Amino acid sequence: MVGQPLVVKLIFFTCFGAFVVSFAVAFWVIVRVLSKTDCLVDKPQDQGLSWRERQARRRSRFDRYYVAEEFRSLRKAAAFAQAGCALSFGSLLLLGLLFGERASH
Length: 105
Description:
By secondary structure, this protein is mainly alpha-helical. 73% of the residues lie in helices and 0% in strands. The longest helix is centred in the first third of the chain and has 32 residues, at 6-37. The protein is elongated and about 65 Å long. The two termini are 16 Å apart.
């Protein structure tokens, strides 16, 4: 980025900031969903079940995320964060291809 116009640097840092924020929001949504659905812990009623049955129950607890109304805002946040990550990362790649310098001279 050395020797590039100020506008290009500003766009680059804006895209980088958008990527970092979007990635952090996506990570926060994942952690929040995993903690609210309790799909990472074994429930007391799951004691004595086989490994496969315990995994199926964990999965069914997680599947609530896709249909329950209580997770609607988290689904929206996840969609926006994933789209923001993809768009900002794509913009960074495009800026790198258009204005970047080759590493090997």
